[in-house]
Design brief:
Blueprint: E1 3-11, E2 15-23, E3 28-39, E4 45-55, H1 58-61, H2 63-91
Length: about 90
């Protein structure tokens, strides 16, 4: 799959936001993500990840189901990211 992304927010170590400008995928109509790192202390932070997606073609028929499943998938990804970040901070 090929994707052209448009970054509309870029603040190193703080924020990254982008949307899909073009794709050769036949199932994604639109997609945007916003990652915002919020410092809590010198050693801790919170990540706010916003994901918006709209499907096309046959996938659009499954959109109601997919939008219910995506939050669970997103939680699993965040758990893995937290684990990786924790391992890297121990090595630093």
């Amino acid at each position: 799959m090929s994707v052209d992304e448009l970054y509309w927010a870029w603040e190193p170590h703080r924020r990254m936001g982008f949307s899909v400008a073009a794709t050769n995928s036949g199932w994604i109509d639109a997609l945007a993500e916003d990652y915002h790192v919020i410092p809590m202390s010198a050693e801790r932070c919170t990540l706010r990840w916003t994901l918006a997606v709209s499907f096309r073609g046959p996938s659009s028929k499954a959109e109601p189901l997919l939008t219910r499943v995506l939050p669970a998938v997103q939680r699993e990804v965040l758990k893995k990211l937290e684990r990786v970040a924790g391992e890297r901070s121990v090595r630093a």
